[in-house]
């Protein structure tokens, strides 16, 4: 399969990439690792007139620890770099990242590309939703803005990014010994994408009694037309010890308010049931990390 013809620019700086985006507007498409965009172009499901290659912009690579402990992950950081880095010691990353795709895709695919692409069954969006990540974006004419992950994913392959915006970095809360996280998913065996994937973060802040959790976040991928936070599960578990009975009772609401997808791999009923099972396993996994 051969893509349709396109013009090609390689940007060597963020400013150059933003200038090219402003000049060429929606005729142009950014390319980072190419692991989502190139397959689409080869199938001619995407036919951009111009590619702006950001893959060699050093300023978008790597992980910084900010003064307040948060992590700033450059949008070009690859899955492989996240796996190898001691600076992102989140349990849900350890669970999810080694299972995404294969080693070649993990060496090329970037965190920015994964979330800008916004596949409704991708893993990374759920991880960032559960972590309460913030996404720093920049455009030539409007400058920089920060979008909470909870407002970023808006529909299938649709995000809050404007066509002339570049995702610069992803900010994650600093690791805390009073928090733990986990990710569990049922994957579609041929593609590896989630039929139902659930990421959770649970924690205690200073104000919480010893045996209860007052910070509970859960995010679901593969189930709705875009990844979402499972608000009803979170509300049911805040103020509880997060044990067998409270988990079993809460996960029944994991699809509340969501139009559950149905396809040849899983009908609505099965997918919803698997979301509850994955939610239960993720919560048990996070809870076990705190004992
Ligand atoms: C064989 C295979 C198996 C896979 N399995 C899985 C899996 O199991 N789970 C899973 O979640 N994913 C899976 N994927 C998808 C993979 O994770 C993503 O394709 C990859 O991470 C996207 O990153 P990229 O850098 O390659 O993006 P690209 O393909 O370069 O770009 C993707 C999109 O993001 C935009 N973009 C890229 N960078 C930026 C930026 N900085 N700012 C704004 N827009 C940007 C591009 O314009 C494009 O629209 C698989 C892919 C393949 C090929």
Strand order of the largest sheet: 4-5-10-6-7
Percent of residues in helices: 25-40%
Bound molecules: flavin-adenine dinucleotide
Count of individual helical segments: 11
CATH hierarchy: architecture of the largest domain: 2-Layer Sandwich
- Largest sheet features: 5 strands, antiparallel
Q: Which structural class do the helices and strands define?
A: alpha+beta
Strand content: 15-25%
Structural domains: how many: 3
Low-confidence segments: none
Q: How are helices and strands ordered from N to C?
A: EHEHEEEHHHHHEEHEEEEEEEHHH
Written overview of the protein:
The mean pLDDT is 96. The protein folds into three domains: 47 residues, Uridine Diphospho-n-acetylenolpyruvylglucosamine Reductase, domain 2, CATH 3.30.43.10; 113 residues, 2-Layer Sandwich (Uridine Diphospho-n-acetylenolpyruvylglucosamine Reductase, domain 3); 111 residues, CO dehydrogenase flavoprotein, C-terminal domain (Enolase-like, domain 1, 2-Layer Sandwich). It is built from eleven helices and 14 strands. It starts with 6 loop residues before the first strand and ends with a helix. With 291 residues, the protein is an alpha+beta fold. A hairpin with a 6-residue loop joins strand 13 and strand 14. It binds flavin-adenine dinucleotide.
